[in-house]
Amino acid sequence: MLNLVLFGPPGAGKGTQSEKLILKYNLVHLSTGDLLRSQIAAGTELGLRAKQLMDQGLLVPDEVVIGMIENKLQENQSAAGFIFDGFPRTVPQAEALDQLLAQHNTQITTMVALVVDDEELTRRLLLRGQTSGRPDDQNEELIRRRVKEYNDKTAPVAGYYNQQGKFAAIDGIGNIETIFDHICAEIQQASN
Ligand SMILES: Nc1ncnc2c1ncn2[C@@H]1O[C@H](COP(=O)(O)OP(=O)(O)O)[C@@H](O)[C@H]1O
Ligand SMILES: [Mg+2]
């Protein structure tokens, strides 16, 4: 099985690269952001609670996203592997993911982090906000808060995988195909 954590701040290109990776490797894409946005769209209780936090650029509680991932792993038992996009976003989430995967007799193959500077992130997210309809992409203040939340709570997750010898950083600026090739090369190396 190939289980990839695609890591990086909002706007780093995780969604963009995931679309290409799922086709090449036949993986199931698990984006907690997308899962939460569909709960919001469906008007569920969970969605209503999540929206209040997301609208402030804050993370949704660990147990909520861990529960969603647990359900998705259960539903996709015959998958060739998974891309985790936007998850884990805290060290406790990373620990929970290790436990869940162990229950399914598998583990994370590698984490690939897309490295993009704050100025480029802001530029991309404001551009995405013009078409995505995502309320959290539409003002610079909120984008700054999301990047701060990322730096405070999520960046340490890289160290968690690095300690396990499962971490690679890739330049996330430039041609989308080139970045994709670099990610594939890392996957190749980690799968050996
Ligand atoms: N290599 C890249 N160069 C320029 N823009 C990019 C690149 N990768 C992604 N983008 C754009 O940046 C925005 C954020 O990308 P996305 O994949 O949604 O990021 P994430 O899922 O990490 O938040 C999108 O509008 C996308 O088109
Ligand atoms: Mg995304």
Automatic annotation (TrEMBL):
Q: Pathway it acts in?
A: Purine metabolism; AMP biosynthesis via salvage pathway; AMP from ADP: step 1/1
The molecular function terms in GO held by this entry are: AMP kinase activity; ATP binding
Q: Which UniProt keywords apply?
A: ATP-binding, Cytoplasm, Kinase, Nucleotide biosynthesis, Nucleotide-binding, Transferase
Task: Write the Enzyme Commission number(s) for this entry.
Answer: 2.7.4.3
Q: Which reaction does it catalyse?
A: AMP + ATP = 2 ADP
**Annotated residues for binding of AMP:** 32, 37, 58-60, 86-89, 93, 134, 146
Compartments, record wording? Cytoplasm
Q: Which GO terms describe its biological process?
A: AMP salvage
**What PROSITE patterns does its record include?**
ADENYLATE_KINASE
Q: Which GO terms describe its cellular component?
A: cytoplasm
Residues bound to ATP: 11-16, 128, 174
Q: Where is this region: NMP?
A: 31-60
The record's Pfam families line, in alphabetical order, gives: ADK (PF00406)
Domain of life per record: Bacteria
Q: What enzyme category does the UniProt record give?
A: transferase
Record-linked SUPFAM superfamilies: P-loop containing nucleoside triphosphate hydrolases
What's the domain remark here? Consists of three domains, a large central CORE domain and two small peripheral domains, NMPbind and LID, which undergo movements during catalysis. The LID domain closes over the site of phosphoryl transfer upon ATP binding. Assembling and dissambling the active center during each catalytic cycle provides an effective means to prevent ATP hydrolysis.
Q: Which family does it belong to?
A: Belongs to the adenylate kinase family.
Job description of the protein: Catalyzes the reversible transfer of the terminal phosphate group between ATP and AMP. Plays an important role in cellular energy homeostasis and in adenine nucleotide metabolism.
Task: Summarize subunit and interaction data from the UniProt record for this chain.
Answer: Monomer.
Q: What is the name attached to this protein's record?
A: Adenylate kinase
Q: What organism is listed for this UniProt entry?
A: Spirosoma terrae
Q: Which gene encodes it?
A: adk
